[in-house]
Amino acid sequence: MTSTATGHREGYVPFPEDAARAYRAAGYWAGRTLGELLRDTASTHPHRPAVLDDTGATTYTELDAAADRMAHGLLALGIEPGDRVIVQLPNIPEFATTLFGLLRAGIIPVLTLPAHRRAEIEHLATLAGAVAYLIPDRLGDFDYRELATTVSAAVPSLRHVLVAGDPGTFAASDTAPHSADATPNPHPHSHSHSHSHSHSTDDSTADISDHGSAVFLALDSIAREGDSLPDIDPADIAVMLVSGGTTGLPKLIARTHDDYAYNATASAEVCGLTADDVYLATLPAAHNFPLACPGILGTVATGGAIAFALDPSPEAAFAAIEKHGVTVTAVVPPLAQLWSAAVDWEDAELGSLRLLQVGGARLAEVNAREVEPALACRLQQVFGMAEGLLNFTRLDDTDELVCTTQGRPLSPADELRIVDAEGNDVAPGEEGELLTRGPYTLRGYYRAPEHNARAFTADGFYRSGDLVRQLPSGHLVVSGRIKDVINRGGENISCDELEEHLLAHPAVRHAAAVGLPDASLGEKACVVLVVTGELPTLAEIKTYLTERGLATYKLPDVIRRADSLPITAVGKIDKKALRAGLA
Ligand code: OOB
């Protein structure tokens, strides 16, 4: 077996005992697992709609039962509590069933985005030691089964690929357990659990794990009835989120049931969520914002209904708002801008919408001021991070605060420090780097001790890399950033990561990625290259990066040539000078 009951904690940085005790004593950590949030709502609101889709509603009783069947099905495959599973599902109702199934089984979902590609997924699956990979069959013209074939050949710990939809010719069968066009399986007759009747045994799963080629199954074929589910410790890891990017490769953020349940329920309270609310997941559901701020988890905890939109365009999202009577949703600034303008040409009825949350990147004041008149709903700015800390403008804040700040901390137990380059606290109201610690903020990235030594202070504060000022009211204004990240319309691109890929190009001698101002995205990604011979075109560089397996949202928008790159006194690329030179 590749896992033990506690193997998943190896490389996990827990909250210190005294802090954990204090968070429990103060009631922030309620000792409820995420699976219990759903269980409790299913008992208080059994017949209320949990998930709305084109064909109707799934009630809480039904979602609760479906999650249990999914949990039993996953366990029957030989996936064990504490095992990690890569989840790369889009905004479809199966996202909810699968997520709660995993949580109920104590299996840890590693929540990746549909936009991630081979480079990210292979890295994350390897880092997590994932045993299974959950994908849709295809989305647009991208076939995730092909991606999974490549990934499973490179990540030997992966034993199962579970496909929402058609596992296609990639499906396992008694004689052809693997994709027809992939590496042939050396033991074609040793796999027989290709459908729901399978009872996996230790020997069958151990056998598969040995040779790095996973069995493809239809996700909806594994659900089954069962007796009891494992006991889950609320202090244990519930989910892993992918960091928006700081340095180098993406990091994993392990969130416990206790801390993430608090994250979701406290966010629900700030948004005044009730069982009458309908939440539209329009940003990718695997992202912290639509997942738990309050998002899907906060809505489930409150007894409201969730609708999923695959497409955040005004046309599709407005239709979903009208059809399902959506009351709350969350978007990034470019979408807020687009939606505000689109009311002029879209004629959907948006009267149900009462709250639009906007976050992920700085919302310009002019755009903030457009939201309420255009969409006739309250605006809420949200400045958050997968690492934990969330700031919200409050529903009863003045319009001035709502339009000019990024909100104030969610919890009375959030500790904030704003420090200068030497790490000293700045005077009140001055700009500095935001450091934070609290009941739902991580104490270390998963399996990243070296990075953790830099990303956290000795006393456990997370260095956000964001520059902020704090008003006397406690509200923060995000004024910039010291981390080497491009925030492209709410999607964070690690410059290090992009540069690494560029440097692998045969013509590239030096590479620097910087953000340039952009009216709709906030920032666009510019790469400055020192090359031998001719400068590759933007299209060539994009193709090259795509072939290396990089997610599409990390591809550059602009390419520039330089004879040399400006260097700082310590010999690092001087991004400030570079940006100034490009402006
Ligand atoms: C959210 O989470 P991540 O992890 O994708 O990105 C976090 C980073 C922050 O450190 C900051 O640099 C930037 O994105 N950011 C903002 C912002 N919200 C996030 N910068 C300026 N203004 C804002 N309102 O992006 C996220 C997580 C939960 C809720 C909302 C956003």
From TrEMBL:
Domain AMP-dependent synthetase/ligase residues, every copy: 39-446
Compositional bias annotation for Basic residues: 188-198
InterPro entries documented for this protein: AMP-bd_C, AMP-bd_C_sf, AMP-dep_synth/lig_dom, ANL_N_sf, ATP-dep_AMP-bd_enzyme
Domain AMP-binding enzyme C-terminal: 497-572
Listed Pfam families: AMP-binding, AMP-binding_C
SUPFAM superfamilies listed in its UniProt record: Acetyl-CoA synthetase-like (SSF56801)
Gene3D superfamilies: 3.30.300.30, 3.40.50.980, N-terminal domain of ligase-like (3.40.50.12780)
Region (Disordered): 172-206
Identification of the protein by name: (2,3-dihydroxybenzoyl)adenylate synthase
